[in-house]
Structures are given as structure tokens and as C-alpha cells.
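Hi team,

Below is the intake form for DUF616 domain-containing protein from Proteus mirabilis. Please confirm the fields before the structure is written into the shared record.

FORM ID: S-0412
PROTEIN: DUF616 domain-containing protein
ORGANISM: Proteus mirabilis
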Amino acid sequence: MKNTRLVYTVILGNYDTLKEVKHISKNIDYICITDNKNITSKTWKIITIDDCENFTLENRRYKFLPFLYFDYEESIYVDGNISIIGDMTFIFDKYLKQHDIAIPKHPFRNCIYDEAHYCIKIKKNNN
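The structure came back. Fields below:
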């Protein structure tokens, strides 16, 4: 039977170095999307995409729209600089069992409008 849970990362433009998964959960698939044809892994399934013009926007496309690319009931995105050292089943069960989406708390702001104004102010990703 195919796994229904996915942990995935996106590494574009050699921004991060892929870290091997330290604890593999049998009921979870691990996928890395990358434009680097030289990345290999013993723990991640590597999916290589063609070069893209805007690494940030391409990364966000996969990050926020996984249902367009993956056929899983549940998915968790992790940044490329994160090491998975524990059982991700716990994270799925705790945060996604009764919710459709879970997002970490922002360290400085709790309002999306404040965050948008700040991003505009510092000219973050003006594309």
C-alpha cells in the first residue's frame, strides 16, 4: 500500500545542502525537489526539475501548493537546512490529525497584514 504521508523539501540554486533523514518512519515518504542534478541521497527520493528563473518563487510554489505536485493525503514541508532527527509521525498526529493546515507561529508578528506591510517596507520579494 502506498504511503499517505509525505515530508518534502525544496532546494534550488544550491541554497542549502541536503541533510539525510536520521529517523525514517516507514509510513512516510521523503522527497527532495531540486534543480541540482548532482544531489544524491540514501533517505530522500530526489526529483530533479529544470532550471528556473526565480528560485524563491519556485520554492514557494512547491511549499504552498503541494497538492498540485504530490498525491498524498498529508504533507509537511521542511526547509532544506533542517535535519530530521525524530519520528515525523508524531508531528503529523499532533498537528494535522484534526486540522487541514498547520503553520508555525511567527517569532515577531501575529497578523498577516502587519507581516505584509513589513515585507513591502523592506522590499522583500517584489516580484
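SUMMARY LINE: The chain has a mean pLDDT of 91.

Thanks, M.
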